[in-house]
């Protein structure tokens, strides 16, 4: 019953999306304005229905209703409830339903909360949101029905990929999806504004909170995903340039650029066409990234079942939405009036450089991700593009970008002079020079990229605080604090990356029981290797006693687990976090002669990478709250006047 | 810049996107599993025990591969068209004295029986792998694939795709060198 009810809710929601689009399109034509007021409530109802369908699927997973094919394939009655719950979106159909749910809820939220946009642009926006929805409802209902029944029902479900039996799965995909799909609002805003030819400061102010919201979730999702890969995969790395990681990085780069260009549009009414373009590109990157991987065309640890029919469906959807939006852009943007002009040396100028560099990095990542596809299409050869390309191509640009980030917030809008700017930057520049000296003295022979990373991080960290210099801290608006904290987060994260890259110590040994090995400041003695058993796995667990100088010794226990259904091996690294870094220990196979593979890392200040990510998201949150509060206050003041 | 140049630039994103759609489409059309080599060559077979694929034929487990004689392990399915094409070559290998076991992927026993009746039955044992879990553990990414397993249960060779008549000598020599 519940499954049928969920399916019915999904069909109804799809029907409402069609109605929403039709009413919006007819309502926008002169003489048919009567239908306009009904568009908002329909968008809200559509959100409620989709939410009900998603709730139904969650219920089926929690209740382990094995007569539903999807539940039978991905659930298991012996699993803890959190993994049953998270299992709802740990598969193709369920994650698609979550995608559509967020899309509809985002549309509903726009219908409820958005009061700043002119009514016609808002209706066009909701129409665009409905148009996106229709395609993905069709994809769910015709090619990925999550509620399909299985007859006869099996007696037990087929579990879940052991790699995915992790609390991280409960939070990581929803966060990331909120970011991906949240960007659909910016896309619809852009399409709506192109339809009504109403691109300007008001449009930018209305769009900004939605972009910020999605961007915060995207930042958190990427940070969490990076940490998950770091501790769960047991390879000691925090970023692998895997297609799926790139798929999340590309929309983030585009959204970051958009966040900055939308500020130029909101404050100075410049960069009109470019901002609209970025809004289209950001969500397009979400769609391309998600579905490139989902179709199985690029192989990755994240791919679900491969089905060419689904791939073709997805390609058609991408072609219609992205192609349609770009076509509209080409046709309409020429008729959008040019915004105001500005000097090259100005806050706007710095933001343009920011945008160009972000776009260049985005291009590098996109080319690297698609290159294997292109080579295969031309020569039929299979290859993959790895870290050497991405690091060498994107690394230097990212460093330049971060360095310019130090100057941007200290520049004035419209026009500025270089001399006073240099004065404002004097202290950070001095700090940079000192950091350079310190690193060269303390770590001779350091490679050039980590060296520059550390030095730039020090300078930018100082410069990011400079906008607060000589200001009344109580009266500084919250969104300025947001910017400062987000920029500081970038510097913190960069420092972590550079430190990890420059100072990591690694020891790989085949160790007998009782032997001691040195890694960084730590000495680890292998005391024992013992078998242990869990609910659906067995493991070998190594017991290592760790000492560092005169400090009290402690014990770490890395595991190598073997799961039965399906037969999979995972590595449970033992990670010890201390104030100046992390000790990371992995146990591997026995060589059959009493020796065990041990892989030990000492990673100084590696935690700064993710701490920086959290700071960036926190900065975004402060900006969002600050902007919304100021809007409300202005609104109230206007109401009084 | 002249207005005309700017006008042209506005269309660049659409053109780039269309190139991407072309790439995507070509990736879809091309069968993608053809050259992904298993990482397990030279490694022991993973532990598994599968139920019998058809009634009247023994089931298949890892222990069946450690009897001291090399065997072929054929990964197939009744719904797989290239598997029909390679069936005569498997029969030919069986007639040449090679012992062949099979894993049937995502299949039903009545369909497997029908497939064997139509295309010949070269198999000593057939295990039924309903959810591809053993196939994935083998590092096999599609059907058909054929592995040469030596008498100690070590994977020696992997043949991806259907076995053509010209592939038979290579497989025979792989079996011989696994002795």
Please describe what this structure looks like:
Chain A has 18 helices and ten strands. With 641 residues, chain A is of the alpha+beta class. In chain A, a hairpin with a 2-residue loop joins β2 (516-519) and β3. The longest helix of chain A is centred in the middle third of the chain and has 33 residues, at 347-379. The mean pLDDT of chain A is 86. Chain B is an alpha/beta fold. Chain B has two domains: 1-30; 49-177, Glutaredoxin (3-Layer(aba) Sandwich), CATH 3.40.30.10. Chain B has helices at residues 3-29, 81-95, 109-119, 133-138, 168-177; strands at residues 49-50, 60-61, 71-76, 100-105, 123-129, 145-149, 155-160. In chain B, a hairpin with a 5-residue loop joins β6 and β7. Chain A binds chain B through residues 73, 158, 273, 277, 280-281, 284, 288, 292, 295-297, 299, 306, 308, 311-312, 315, 318-319, 322-323, 326-327, 329-330, 333-334, 370, 373-374, 376-377, 380, 382, 565-568, and chain B through 6-7, 10-11, 13-14, 17-18, 20-28, 30, 32, 35-36, 46-48, 131, 133-134, 136-137.
Main traits of this protein?
heterodimer; A: 641 residues; alpha+beta; four-stranded antiparallel beta sheet; 63% helix; 11% strand; globular; B: 179 residues; alpha/beta; Glutaredoxin; 2 domains; five-stranded mixed beta sheet; two-stranded antiparallel ribbon; 7 strands
């Amino acid at each position: 019953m519940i499954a049928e009810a969920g399916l019915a809710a999904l069909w109804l929601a799809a029907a409402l999306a069609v109605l929403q689009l039709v009413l919006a399109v007819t309502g926008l034509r002169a003489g048919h304005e009567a239908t306009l007021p009904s568009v908002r409530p329909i968008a809200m109802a559509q959100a409620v229905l989709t939410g009900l369908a998603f709730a139904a699927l969650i219920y089926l997973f929690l209740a382990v209703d094995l007569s539903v094919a999807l539940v039978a394939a991905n659930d298991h009655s012996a699993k803890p409830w959190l993994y049953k719950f998270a299992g709802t979106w740990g598969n193709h159909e369920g994650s698609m339903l979550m995608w559509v749910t967020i899309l509809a809820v985002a549309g509903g939220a726009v219908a409820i909360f958005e009061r700043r946009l002119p009514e016609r642009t808002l209706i066009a926006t909701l129409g665009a949101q409905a148009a996106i929805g229709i395609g993905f409802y069709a994809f769910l209902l015709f090619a990925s029905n999550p509620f399909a029944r299985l007859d006869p029902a099996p007696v037990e479900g087929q579990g879940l990929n052991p790699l995915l039996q992790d609390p991280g799965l409960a939070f990581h995909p929803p966060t990331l999806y909120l970011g991906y799909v949240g960007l659909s609002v910016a896309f619809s805003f852009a399409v709506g504004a192109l339809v009504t030819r109403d691109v300007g400061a008001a449009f930018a102010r209305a769009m900004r909170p939605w972009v910020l919201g999605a961007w915060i979730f995207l930042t958190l999702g990427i940070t969490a995903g990076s940490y998950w890969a770091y501790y769960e995969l047991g390879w000691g790395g925090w970023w692998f340039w895997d297609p799926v990681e790139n798929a999340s990085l590309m929309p983030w780069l585009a959204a970051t650029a958009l966040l900055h260009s939308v500020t130029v549009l909101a404050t100075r009414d410049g960069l009109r066409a470019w901002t609209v373009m970025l809004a289209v590109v950001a969500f397009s990157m979400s769609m391309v990234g998600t579905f490139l991987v989902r179709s199985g065309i690029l192989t990755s640890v994240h791919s679900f079942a491969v089905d060419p029919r689904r791939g073709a469906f997805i390609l058609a959807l991408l072609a219609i939405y992205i192609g349609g939006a770009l076509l509209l852009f080409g046709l309409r943007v020429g008729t959008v009036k040019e915004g105001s002009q500005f000097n090259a040396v100005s806050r706007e100028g710095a933001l343009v450089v920011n945008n160009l560099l972000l776009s260049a990095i985005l291009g590098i990542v996109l080319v690297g991700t698609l290159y294997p596809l292109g080579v295969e299409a031309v020569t039929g050869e299979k290859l993959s593009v790895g870290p050497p390309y991405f690091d060498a191509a994107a690394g230097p640009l990212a460093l330049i970008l971060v360095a310019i980030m130090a100057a941007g917030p200290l520049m004035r809008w419209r026009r500025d002079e270089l001399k006073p700017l240099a004065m404002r930057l004097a202290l950070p520049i001095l700090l940079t020079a000192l950091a350079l000296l310190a690193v060269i003295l303390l770590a001779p022979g350091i490679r050039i990229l980590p060296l520059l990373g550390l030095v730039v991080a020090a300078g930018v960290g100082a410069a990011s605080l400079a906008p607060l210099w000589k200001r009344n801290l109580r009266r500084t608006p919250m969104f300025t604090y947001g910017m400062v904290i987000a920029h500081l987060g970038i510097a913190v994260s960069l420092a972590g990356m550079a430190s990890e890259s420059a100072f990591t110590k690694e020891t790989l040994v085949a160790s007998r029981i009782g032997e001691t090995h040195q890694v960084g400041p730590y000495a680890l003695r292998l005391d024992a290797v013992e078998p242990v058993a869990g609910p659906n796995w067995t493991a070998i667990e190594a017991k290592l006693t760790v000492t560092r100088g005169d400090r009290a010794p402690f014990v770490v226990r890395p595991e190598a687990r073997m799961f039965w259904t399906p037969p999979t091996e995972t590595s449970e690294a033992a990670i010890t976090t201390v104030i100046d870094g992390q000790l990371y220990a992995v146990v591997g196979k026995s060589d059959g002669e009493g020796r065990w593979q041990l892989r030990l890392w000492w990673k100084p200040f590696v935690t700064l990478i993710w701490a920086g990510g959290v700071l960036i998201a926190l900065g975004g949150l402060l900006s969002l709250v600050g902007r919304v509060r100021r809007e409300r206050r202005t609104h109230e003041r206007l109401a009084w006047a | 810049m002249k207005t005309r140049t700017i006008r042209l630039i506005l269309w660049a994103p659409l053109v780039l996107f269309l190139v991407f759609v072309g790439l995507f489409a070509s990736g879809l059309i091309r069968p993608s599993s053809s050259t992904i080599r298993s990482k397990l060559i030279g490694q022991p077979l993973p532990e598994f025990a599968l139920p019998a694929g058809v009634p009247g034929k023994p089931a298949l487990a890892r222990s069946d591969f450690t009897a001291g004689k090399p065997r072929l392990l054929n990964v197939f399915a009744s719904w797989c068209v290239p598997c029909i094409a390679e069936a005569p070559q498997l029969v030919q290998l069986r007639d040449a004295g090679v012992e062949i076991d099979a894993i049937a992927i995502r299949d039903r026993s009545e369909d497997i029986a029908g497939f064997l009746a139509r295309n010949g039955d070269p198999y000593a044992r057939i295990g039924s792998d309903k959810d591809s879990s053993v196939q994935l553990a083998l590092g096999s990414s599609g059907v058909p694939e054929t592995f040469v397993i030596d008498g100690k249960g070590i994977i020696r060779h992997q043949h991806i795709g259907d076995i053509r008549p010209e592939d038979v000598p290579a497989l025979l020599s792989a079996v011989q060198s696994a002795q």
